[in-house]
Write the structure tokens for this entry.
Amino acid sequence: MVLLGFIRRIFAPGVVLCAAFLAGGAQAQDDDAVPILKKMSAYIGGQPTIQATFDTDIEVVTDDLQKIQFASSGQVMLSRPDKLRASRTGGYADVELVFDGKKVTVFGKYLAAYSQADFSGSVDQLIDKMRSEFGVEAPGTDLLLSRSFDELMTGAYDAKHIGRGVIDGVECEHLAFRSSDTDWQIWIEAGANPIPRKFVITSKSVTGAPQYTLRIKDWNTNSQPPADAFAFSLRLKRSRWFSARL
């Protein structure tokens, strides 16, 4: 009973504070949210190279309103302005995208097949084209854009600085934003390196309000990727291949 009382004394104040905030009894620091997000955008957009690993969870709501969560992990390597390598592995997907500034390749390892297309442009332009013309949505890629603030804030009508939280042992600024069809939150490392550590998107237009969660780890902006980091290997000679045009 003594232990139970001790636990309650530790956790109850936090629970009460959260309940009060959600009920409107506490005020978020609204004026701080946008400047903090701008600082993150400027910092990330100014990094010539980025390497990171990540974990993702995406929820699917069934017809009988059961939420099923699918988990995957991956890594990303970026060299501005026109080189990108990203992979994601999960129970139902094992895919890799490679862009060397002249050609983009998407490789489905489970299918033993890949597709290539000629494309000249920046990583920003590639992400925009894949989204606008091919309907390829990859939540979280906005964070890599050189002007991520503009993209993230499109349609946002509310911004709150909730306070501070800790992600993987790192103290972060916790921000929350709202748009007509989504609510989203982001945790940005506090201090001199304002990198995003966690990103959550809630779909308000879908029954059950499923969420997409991205947790970013092992940030590295100090080392240069190897010379062949963005070359698609021809070790896939036995794989089926498809050509396309972007």
